[in-house]
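Final report, Chapter 2: Outcomes

The project's central promise was a pipeline that accepts a single protein chain and returns its three-dimensional structure in a standardized token representation, suitable for archiving and comparison. That pipeline is now operational. To close this chapter, we reproduce one record exactly as it appears in the project archive, with the input sequence first and the structure output second.
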Amino acid sequence: MRWLLSIAAGWLIGTMSHAQDPPTTMHGVFTATQVARGEELNEEYCAGCHEDGYFQDAFLAAWRDQPVSGLFDLLRATMPQDSPGLLSDTEYADLLAYIFALNGLPEGPSTLDPQTLDQLIIQTP
């Protein structure tokens, strides 16, 4: 009987800790509309300095397991290079959605919200 209680307790603890895992970028946390807006912003503000492919693979892999807010804050504080902070928070979130899409992350029904990025962890396929 004790072994049955031990198994049940272990399962319950494992289920509870899994239920508390933070959401990740693998869970459809941005929309196709955001990606389209981000692509336009990239063409206007980023492509002049960053060549095609700059935001793919190694770029996002370096941020793996980090909160999205860290990357968001870095972009906002340093880009565009000639005028950091020029864009609105929503526009920086749209750029992030575009970067995520470039890296094969799934779109979904949720909008990438600048107010909740500290609760979202970067994961890649």
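Archive annotation: The chain is about 50% helix and 0% strand.
This record, like all others produced under the grant, will remain available to the consortium after the project formally closes.
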